């Protein structure tokens, strides 16, 4: 059974840092492109970051570039999202996504259940 499980969310103060993890199971993780998406309260889910199957290529949304870093450890079948200088607008549910193409956006691929990030003082 293909499964993605996110973890690492929580409450953080503005300008704080947090690292999210996404553990993959039931498929060969190193064959898939992995992405992170954010659904803020009252908004549609939006693209955050994407990493190629081998980790050599990454892509970020304009609003997160420079503050967020996506990485992966294929030996551990885990993808990470390091977030620094967090802002209130970074709050919401973060979802992990796996797909076979280096593309982002839309409902395609496999999704995790999400992990909540709250940015508040």
What does this structure look like?
The structure is a single chain. This protein is mainly β. It contains no helices and 11 strands. The chain has strands spanning 3-7, 10-12, 18-25, 33-39, 46-51, 58-60, 68-73, 78-83, 92-99, 110-111, 115-119. The strands form 2 sheets. Strands 2, 4, 5, 6, 9, 10 and 11 form a 7-stranded mixed sheet that branches. It has a 4-stranded antiparallel sheet with strand order 1-3-8-7, with no helix packed on it. A hairpin with a 6-residue loop joins β4 (33-39) and β5 (46-51). The relative contact order is 0.32.
Helix and strand topology:
Layout lengths: L2 E5 L2 E3 L5 E8 L7 E7 L6 E6 L6 E3 L7 E6 L4 E6 L8 E8 L10 E2 L3 E5 L2
Parallel strand pairs: 2-11
Antiparallel strand pairs: 1-3, 3-8, 4-5, 4-9, 5-6, 7-8, 9-10, 9-11
Helical region count? 0
Radius of gyration: 13 Å
Mean residue pLDDT: 95
Helix content: under 10%
Structural class, by secondary structure, is mainly beta
| Unreliable segments of 5+ consecutive residues | none
* Order of H and E elements: EEEEEEEEEEE
Query: Care to count the β-strands?
Result: 11
CA(first)-CA(last) distance: 40 Å
Q: Identify the overall geometry.
A: globular
The biggest beta sheet is recorded as: 7 strands, mixed
Give the percentage of residues in beta strands.
over 45%
Task: Give a short summary of the structure.
With 121 residues, the protein is an all-beta fold. The protein is built from no helices and eleven strands.
């Amino acid at each position: 059974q293909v499964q993605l499980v996110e973890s690492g969310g929580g409450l953080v103060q503005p300008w704080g840092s947090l690292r999210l993890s996404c553990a993959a199971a039931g498929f060969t993780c190193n064959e898939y492109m992995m992405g992170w998406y954010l659904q803020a309260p009252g908004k549609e889910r939006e693209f955050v970051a994407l990493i190629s199957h081998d980790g050599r290529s990454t892509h970020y949304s304009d609003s997160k570039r420079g503050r967020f870093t996506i990485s992966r450890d294929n030996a551990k079948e885990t993808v990470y999202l390091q977030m620094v200088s967090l802002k209130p607008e970074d709050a919401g549910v973060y979802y992990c996504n796996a797909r076979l193409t280096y593309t982002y956006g839309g409902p395609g691929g496999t999704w995790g259940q999400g992990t909540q990030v709250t940015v508040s003082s």
